[in-house]
Amino acid sequence: MPTVEVTDLKDDDFLLDVREDDEWQAGHAEKALHIPISDFVARYGELTEAAPQDGRVHVICRSGGRSAQVAMYLVQQGIDAVNVDGGMQVWAAVGRPVVTDEGQPGFVL
C-alpha cells in the first residue's frame, strides 16, 4: 500500500478524511473532504467530483487503518491514492492545525 508521511504533505495536497462524523466534528484538517468510511461506496461520486483530475488523493483517518482500506480501494479503481501514515494522531502530534467546522481549534477523537 503506498503511504506518505504527514510531514511530507503540502498545504495544497488533496486530503480525504474517512473518519466517522463524531471524529470529524471533534476536529479535522481545514481543507479536507469528509466522507466517512461507512458511507464511502454510496458517496464515491462526491470524491470523483472534488478530487483533482490528475492529482493524488491523500487518505487519512485516526491512525491509518481505515484510510489504508479506502486508499487500496481507490487504487483498484485506477485513482492515484496514498494512505497518510499515522493519520490524524500524527497530524496533530507534529503540530498541523486541527479545526472544527466553525474554524475553532479542535482535537483528534
From TrEMBL:
PROSITE patterns listed in its UniProt record: RHODANESE_3
InterPro entries per UniProt: GlpE_sulfurtransferase (IPR050229), Rhodanese-like_dom (IPR001763), Rhodanese-like_dom_sf (IPR036873)
Domain Rhodanese: 9-100
Any Pfam family the entry gives: Rhodanese
Protein origin, superkingdom: Bacteria
Protein name according to UniProt: Rhodanese-like domain-containing protein
Source organism of this protein record: Streptomyces machairae
